[in-house]
Each structure stands twice: as C-alpha cells, then as structure tokens.
Specification:
single chain, five-stranded antiparallel beta sheet, alpha+beta, globular, Phosphatase 2c, domain 1
C-alpha cells in the first residue's frame, strides 16, 4: 500500500499557545493527532507525551515482536488492533502517572486519534473527540465517535441543529488520556482503496468547519489533477477554513492519501 501523508498544526486565532501535537511515523504507516487539555504547559506536555509514547511502542514492537507488552491482549482483536490499543493505553498510563507525581501537571490530559495502515487494512484507535474521516467517491464519512457529553446526550435525546449549537456542555469530554489510570480505546477497521483520503483532526477543525465544507475542500483537490495528491495543501486549506470561521481553538490536521 502506497501512502502520501502530511501533518499540520496551528495555534488558531484566539489561543496564545498550541496544545495540539501531530506526528507522522511513515516507516510504521502510523499517523497521530492529540489535543491536550489542562492549561498552559500541561496540555501540550500531555499531547506530546501521547504521540511520543505511541511512536516508541510501535518502534519497540517492530524490532522485537516477542517483546513483553505492559497489558494483556484483548480477545477478539487482531495483533495489529491490540498493538494500537496497547500503545494508547501505555500513553494514558504515562500521562496519568506523570500528573500524579507533579502538582503543576495535575489534571492534564489529551484526546488522541490514530491510524495504522497494514497489509490487511487500516485501523483507527481513539479516545476523546479528535476525529478520523474518510473521503471517498465524493463523499465524507466520519469513522470515529466522539467521547463527549453532547454525543452521549444525543444517543438518548433528539436535538435540532440549533439545540446542538446551544448545548451548554458541548465541549465536555467523557474519555481522554490522563483522566484515570486505565482507559478503553475504541478500535475500528477499514478497507482502504486507491484514491481514498483519510483525515485525522482535533476538534479545533471539526468544531469550526462543517462536514459538507470539509468535503467540498478535499474534493476540490481530488478533482483537480494537478493537486489531487497535494496532501499538505489539503491540510493547509482545512486549517485556513477553520481560522477563517473564527479559529477559537488550536487546529490540527493529518491527511493521508492512498495511492494506486
């Protein structure tokens, strides 16, 4: 599977520092976005720890598949799915323990969304409201489900778009790395095909740009032969749109195109 990827992060229009972290690990076909929480210094520490810990675990297990894992494998998950889940659980434990040991970092945490491409498919692993999307055949598909109070509420109540917009606790996260010593990781499996674009983003993008507008932006590239593989341009265009719409949060995007 041939991939072309780019990652960009931006402080946005309102914040004074960037708590997001993005990482491409091309030799592992691994891509990560993390959105830190906890105020100045702590949030960016948590997101940086998350992407670094996940990367380290993958590199360690690539060199030695017999390496002892810090957590038991989950039944029903394939090796690569367990590998992805374990890397996020390990990052969670590191962030939680660091926060417990340093009063200045108490309460820090981060969302995370990851994608791993292997010979038998693509896998998402996530905690929080950072998202993964697929752009295929002119359509946009959200691949992850937000771990948020709003999303939990929507499962039990039908809300109008206006009620969703005015929901008083829209930004409350119910699952994120660093909140507890253990965490559940949502794993999804997907079948990539040539021409697909997968996009990972923080809520600074998904909260400022509607899905239809994202789709219009990405398809504008895909339908232009000269720009169809310009994944960096896609990231830039998405972030520019978020900032044009107010940029109230840090904005991050990773775009991965599946090549023929």
């Amino acid at each position: 599977m041939k991939l072309k990827a780019a990652a960009l992060t931006n402080v946005g229009m309102k914040r004074t520092h960037n708590e997001d972290s993005v990482l491409l690990v091309p030799h592992e076909n691994l891509f990560i976005v993390a959105d830190g929480m906890g105020g100045h210094a702590s949030g960016e520490v948590a997101s940086a720890m998350a992407v670094d810990q996940i990367k380290q675990f993958f590199e360690m297990t690539s060199k030695d598949e017999e390496q002892t894992w810090p957590f038991k494998e989950e039944r029903g998950l394939k090796y690569e799915e367990n590998r992805l889940s374990t890397s996020v659980k390990l990052a969670n434990r590191s962030i939680y323990e660091t926060a417990q040991q340093d009063a200045k970092k108490r309460g820090m945490g981060t969302t995370v969304v990851t994608m791993l491409f292997t010979h038998d498919g693509a896998y998402t692993g996530h905690c929080g409201d950072s998202r993964a999307y697929l752009f295929r055949d002119g359509n946009i598909i959200q691949l992850t489900e937000d771990h948020s109070l709003l999303n939990d509420y929507l499962k039990a109540h039908a809300l109008t778009p206006e009620e969703i917009e005015n929901f008083p606790h829209k930004n409350v996260i119910v699952r994120a790395l660093g909140m507890k010593d253990t965490i559940a990781v949502d794993i999804g499996r997907h079948e990539p095909k040539p021409g697909d674009v997968f996009m990972l983003c923080s809520d600074g993008l998904s909260g400022m740009v509607t899905d239809p507008d994202m789709n219009t932006i990405i398809n504008g590239f895909l339908q232009d032969e000269a720009r169809a593989d310009d994944v960096e341009g896609m990231c830039n265009a998405l972030i520019d749109e978020a900032n044009k719409n107010g940029g109230t949060d840090n904005v991050s995007a990773v775009c991965v195109k599946v090549l023929p």
